[in-house]
Automatic annotation (TrEMBL), chain A:
InterPro entries attached to this UniProt entry: BPD_transp_1_N, MetI-like, MetI-like_sf
Lineage: Bacteria, Bacillati, Actinomycetota, Actinomycetes, Streptosporangiales
Listed GO CC annotations: plasma membrane
Any GO BP annotation: transmembrane transport
Family from the record: Belongs to the binding-protein-dependent transport system permease family.
Positions of the ABC transmembrane type-1 domain: 109-306
Keywords: Cell membrane, Membrane, Transmembrane, Transmembrane helix, Transport
Species of provenance: Actinocorallia herbida
Primary location: membrane
Protein name, UniProt field: Peptide/nickel transport system permease protein
From TrEMBL, chain B:
SUPFAM superfamilies: Periplasmic binding protein-like II
Keywords: Signal
Keyword Signal tagged: yes
Gene3D superfamilies reported in the protein's UniProt record: Dipeptide-binding Protein, Domain 3, Periplasmic binding protein-like II
MF annotations from Gene Ontology: peptide transmembrane transporter activity
Cleaved signal peptide residues: 1-21
GO annotation (BP), single: peptide transport
CC per GO annotation: ATP-binding cassette (ABC) transporter complex; periplasmic space
Glycosyltransferase in keyword set: no
Domain Solute-binding protein family: 73-428
Protein name: Peptide/nickel transport system substrate-binding protein
Organism: Actinocorallia herbida
Entry superkingdom: Bacteria
């Protein structure tokens, strides 16, 4: 069943996807820039006033600090300046803390990446297990579980886990989360909605695959259900689940805001939450660009995974359009 | 010296090591763990007045004076003597000897001058505002100096007791403000910064050899704990959980519902009424509240006792003046803050606001609606005030907006009500808020009140200052220029293992005397 795909097709496909990713990142940057300039409120005034319990600040002080930060220049100049700097990886300095955004992100990213990747791995593993179990004989009862889990708010899950595993049975820390023990509860909290989503999509896809004629043929030849599910069904049903895993990665940033707050962890989620509430433009801009790059990267990886998982995808984009792959 | 003796001599330090370790009990090496509700974002006390920031920086810097939390009296610290000139415009200090910053440089008059010269250049709210009119610091010699102002400045001595006036090493006085926010400022305090991880923790360690505490301190020497770790725990449930499970020994800002469980069973509550201007309904005089009868109706229409009984809890008290009872020069004016709904309704009738069919009063077809601008989220007490005013026929809209929007709308005067309280153990907070020469967010007309406020600022003796403060408070209450609500309290829950944790006159944490068992 091996086909010999057009040798230029793969580089072209990758280049096209890369261009798309670049557009996504640029659009995210521009939209955030525009939104932050359109919403009411002056971040400089907020910084100066907020630090002292909303005490009024003399207007000349606000004007001076605005000028120091370059906010008195024309918007177009600010945009171009920010864009050129961003390409070089320089997002300027936080208005609230004065620290370079790149340094803030460099400090917070490892914690969030560790949390996010652990949660992603847990999501995929638990979701796959659940999907398979639900499609085995007597597994029907498990099908309601993902729907329930997906509807649980993360902050509630987090607080319940803290209550049980940090307070009632003090097995794990609920604060700060340095080291492996501190990672367990936050990662589980963040993984639950993702696992539910994977289980739902993969489970349904698996159920459909198992109704395909070839599966019935396999069973008719005497293969056990377990063998059909694991050897044949799972691979064929994986594509929608891989797509979902790509989307999940985007959701992890949002989830990190909640989980990092509940578990008092440092991370990008906390940074973004504080930056948005204080209109800290350079920080929001930096986080959005990094998130967009990460999101585009994961989706690129997912797109490149399709052809590996499913030979049919390799041929679809061929200019000839001919479907040459042969079904197993 | 024989070889064996030399070998012994070389080994001696090694032999001594275990002995040293045995000397210090485990408790002395313990680190005090404190859960704070928020990361202040900036630790530099000159740049931020945020309570969480000052709770940390209070242990890093020493100040010229200290303020007795009981009497409000200003007492020696780094300055062993201080005198105000007869005209109240200059202040002469004599520094104690032998004080050094943690970078090893001596704390002398030049360092004080460098600290103040830098402080005045920061935007003029918070601590820098207390230095308004600063003409300079004249250094006589390494221990004697004089600070001069262009006008009498009665509040200055109290200001020198606050963390915002902590004396900094000249090198860091000149450092980049952003770096100072990250904690790279060097003081002479009983603790030094170990590290600050944004959104997670600040860790302090004991300064060895510290020997110049405030004249109020019980401990003459270095701090008794090895260090302190402040963890930022924004979720109230996680904060109390961390305390009850022993992960922290102190948790700040305990919610009313959780207080009972920390009053016994290995814990106690450390409570202090916050000095300064009590949380009020701040009234915008530019709108419909320009009518004094309306403002008076609000003053009489709020049931302060009910706020405490239903929402705030026993650690809070109804306001008895514009100033909280822990502020120096406070006088009880509870007679002016009684709850009299009938009189309030009569005043509204008199002002021409008649009850409509839905219970909301109206005049010339326009309903009596007040916008209460709130930096989100809305505290529950606001909803109770809203209900109380609804009962008088006033429709209050609680408009909770993001902080950025709050500041903008507050500055533009797009509100009828808001709440601005000021924490400071000095009656000069009245001038900050009510003087029409300042920001005047309330659009007050200039009046005799300005004169009283200037008089309290320039009074050179306590009696004259008390008189001026009383006159100002009377004027404010007579004209119903604000509606004081309740005395704010800070409530910390503390494990019984912690001894000697103090709150200073400004209700900031003092860790110098703390012992852990």
């Amino acid at each position: 069943m091996s086909s010999s795909p057009d040798r230029r097709a793969v580089p072209r496909y990758v280049a096209g996807r890369l261009a798309q990713a670049a557009v996504v990142v640029w659009a995210a940057f521009t939209v955030v820039f525009a939104i932050q300039r359109l919403v009411p409120g002056d971040p400089v005034e907020l910084m100066l006033s907020g630090r002292n319990g909303f005490e009024a600040v003399p207007p000349e002080d606000v004007a001076r600090v605005r000028a120091e930060l370059g906010f008195d220049r024309p918007v177009a100049v600010q945009y171009l300046d920010a864009a050129v700097s961003a390409v070089r990886g320089d997002f300027g300095a936080s208005i609230q803390t004065g620290r370079p955004v790149a340094a803030m992100l460099a400090e917070a990213l490892p914690a969030t990446l560790t949390l996010g990747l652990t949660a992603l791995a847990l999501s995929v593993a638990a979701g796959t297990l659940l999907a398979v179990a639900a499609n085995l004989p007597h597994g029907g009862a498990l099908r309601a579980l993902p729907g329930l889990a997906v509807s649980l708010p993360s902050f509630l899950v987090g607080l319940v886990l803290i209550q049980l595993f940090a307070l009632r049975w003090p097995l794990l820390p609920s604060l700060g989360g340095s080291g492996l023990p501190g990672l367990v509860l936050p990662a589980c909290t963040l993984a639950i909605p993702g696992a539910a989503l994977v289980a739902q999509v993969l489970g349904r896809s698996l159920a459909e695959t198992l109704r395909e004629p070839y599966c019935e043929t396999l069973r008719a030849t005497g293969a056990s259900t377990v063998r059909v599910v694991l050897r044949h069904g799972l691979r064929n049903a994986a594509i929608p689940a891989v797509t979902v895993a790509g989307v999940l990665t985007g959701g992890l940033i949002g989830g990190a805001v909640v989980v990092e707050t509940v578990f008092s962890r440092q991370g990008v989620g906390r940074i973004v939450q504080f930056a948005v509430s204080t209109q800290d433009l350079p920080v929001v801009q930096g986080v959005v660009v990094v998130a967009a790059v990460g999101f585009a990267g994961v989706n690129l990886a997912v797109d490149l995974l399709y052809p590996v998982l499913d030979p049919r995808v390799r041929t679809v984009r061929r200019p000839s359009g001919a479907l040459r792959a042969v079904k197993a | 010296m024989p070889a064996s003796a030399r070998a012994l001599a070389a080994l001696a330090p090694l032999l001594l090591l275990p002995a040293c370790a045995a000397d210090s009990s485990p408790a002395a090496e313990a680190v005090l763990q404190i859960a704070l509700p928020a990361d202040p974002g900036c630790l530099d006390p000159q740049q931020t007045g945020q309570l969480a920031a000052l709770d940390v920086s209070r242990s890093l810097v020493d100040t010229l004076t200290d303020q007795d939390p009981e009497t409000g009296e200003i007492v020696p610290w780094l300055a062993q003597e201080f005198t105000a000139s007869a005209d109240g415009r200059s202040f002469t200090f004599v520094l104690r000897e032998g004080v050094t910053f943690s970078d090893g440089t001596p704390l002398d008059a030049a360092a004080v001058k460098a600290t103040f010269d830098r402080l005045i250049k920061f935007p003029a709210n918070g601590a820098p505002a207390y230095l308004r009119g600063y003409q300079g610091t004249k250094v006589a010699d390494s221990r004697n100096f004089t600070v001069a102002f262009d006008a009498p400045n009665a509040q200055f001595l109290q200001a020198t007791s606050g963390a915002g006036f902590g004396i900094l090493s000249p090198k860091t006085a000149a450092a980049d403000p952003a770096e100072r926010c990250r904690g790279s400022f060097v003081g002479s305090g009983p603790f030094v910064l170990d590290h600050y991880t944004a959104n997670q923790e600040v860790v302090l360690k004991r300064r060895e050899g510290y020997a110049w505490p405030s004249s109020l301190a019980a401990n003459d020497g270095a701090a008794k704990v090895a260090g302190a770790r402040f963890v930022f725990v924004p979720e109230a449930g996680a904060r109390t959980g961390a305390l009850s499970s022993g992960q922290v020994a102190v948790a700040q800002n305990i919610q009313e519902a959780d207080r009972a469980r920390f009053q016994s069973g290995g814990f106690q509550l450390l409570t202090k009424a916050v000095p300064g201007l009590v949380p009020p309904l701040s009234l915008n005089h530019a709108g419909v509240l320009g009518d004094r009868r309306l403002r008076e109706a609000l003053l009489l229409g709020v049931d302060r006792q009910a706020l405490v009984d239903t929402v705030l809890g026993a650690q809070f008290r109804p306001a008895t003046s514009v100033l909280s009872s822990t502020t120096p020069f406070y006088a009880d004016r509870a007679d002016r803050l009684r709850h009299d709904p009938d009189r309030a309704k009569a005043l509204l009738d008199e002002a021409g606001w008649k009850p409509g069919a839905d219970g909301i009063r109206a005049k010339d077809g326009a309903p009596l609606k007040l916008v209460w601008l709130i930096p989100a989220p809305t505290p529950p007490v606001n909803e109770l005030v809203q209900q109380q005013l609804r009962a008088l026929g006033i429709d209050v809209e609680l408009r909770a907006v993001p902080p950025a929007k709050y500041v903008e709308q507050q500055q533009k005067g797009e509100f009828d009500l808001t709440a601005v309280a000021v924490t400071r153990a000095d009656p000069d907070v009245l001038r900050n808020i009510f003087s029409t020469k300042g920001a005047n967010l309330w659009h007050l007309p200039s009046s005799e009140l300005d004169t009283f406020l200037d008089q309290q600022a320039s009074a050179t003796d306590g009696k004259a200052r008390q008189e001026a403060v009383d006159k100002a408070v009377t004027w404010i209450l007579d004209h119903a220029d604000t509606v004081p609500l309740y005395e704010n309290s800070l409530v910390h829950a503390v494990s019984d293992k912690v001894k000697g944790l103090r709150l200073d006159a400004s209700a900031r944490l003092g860790l110098h005397d703390v012992e852990l068992s």
